[in-house]
Amino acid sequence: MSDTPIYDFKKLKAALEGLGYTLGEAKPYIPLEVTDVNLSNIQSGEVEITNEGIFYVNPDKGNKQQIFLYMRNYDIASYGKPRFHITNCETLKSIGTKKYRRANTGTVMVYDTSREKDVEVSGLPLCKNCLKIIRAARQLEYGYDMTSDEFERILREAGVNAENDNDPDTDLEGYTWKWQKISEAYRTKKNYTCEICGFHPESRMDRQFVHVHHRDGRKTNNRESNLQCLCIACHSNVNPTHQENFSKGANRVMLDSFKKKYPNAGTINQQKSNNPSNDNDFPF
């Protein structure tokens, strides 16, 4: 992915999808007051820290909002800006949460220990350990440091999209909340057989090579007529975006592994099919 800053909604969504990050059950964006996080917040469930994301749960209404954590006390002169966390990474596990604040805005207040006062800081860089979790979750190679400003813009734009979406059962990334179950059910119905080249895995483990594709590119359109069961080779070739996604990193390693084991799979030229697509989805 390019190091070019991300400004418009389309690029923001693409960045988030490139991260493989799921925004979970959060609702449309509402700015939250920056607040310290303590153990009682975790134990009460007011703050949920998971590999899929970090959430503030309103104790009165019960609704979730996507948030991030960052160190409230930091020597900015010596170390620069503190990094922000969006998953249950090794840093949070090793340091704990008692030294952190929660926020969902790009600009936050940090107590600068070098100047011994609170200062306003924007553009916090993303935690590298969070990035490792995100990479592993979707087997992606990603080298772009998202900032807290960009993360806020993603939450805002996704929130606007959620408010205008006629389907109430969607997450902020655009998928239905039960997409994994829908995907599994559809692949099972199709007997894990590629609808393009006819590939069928030899073992249960090799079912990971079978994906579900949205023909029209809309992740909320999960009608069976819009779904297509594809092997990784056919899925990787549906359009230039997919070709790019599977041309490098762990995605390429998995694709090469598939082709090595199943050299005759995916031999039909997807570009000549009657099912063009513009989506950027992944198997689950």
Provide a descriptive summary of the structure in words.
The strands form three sheets. Strands 1, 2, 3, 4, 6 and 7 form a six-stranded antiparallel sheet that branches. A hairpin with a 6-residue loop joins strand 3 (53-57) and strand 4. It is built from ten helices and eleven strands. Helix 1 packs across helix 6 (148-164). It is of the alpha+beta class. The relative contact order is 0.13. The two termini are 21 Å apart. The protein folds into two domains: 9-164, no CATH class; 179-272, no CATH class.
List keywords for this structure.
284 residues, alpha+beta, three-stranded mixed sheet, 11 strands, 17% strand, elongated
Supply the number of structural domains.
2
Helix fraction bin: 25-40%
Through-space gap between termini: 21 Å
Count of alpha and pi helical runs: 10
Structural class: alpha+beta
Shape: elongated
Report Rg.
Answer: 21 Å
Low-confidence stretches: 1-12, 18-26, 139-143, 160-175, 269-284
Reported for the largest beta sheet, the result is: 6 strands, antiparallel
Instruction: Write down the secondary-structure element order.
Output: HEHEEEEHEHEEEHHHEEHHH
The mean pLDDT is 75
Q: What is the percentage of strand-forming residues?
A: 15-25%
Number of DSSP-assigned strands: 11
Give the secondary structure arrangement, pairings included.
Elements: H1 9-19, E1 35-36, H2 39-43, E2 47-50, E3 53-57, E4 64-71, E5 73-74, H3 76-79, E6 84-85, H4 90-95, E7 100-103, E8 107-112, E9 117-122, H5 128-138, H6 148-164, H7 179-189, E10 210-214, E11 227-231, H8 232-235, H9 240-245, H10 249-261
Parallel strand pairs: 5-8
Antiparallel strand pairs: 1-7, 2-3, 3-4, 4-6, 4-7, 8-9, 10-11
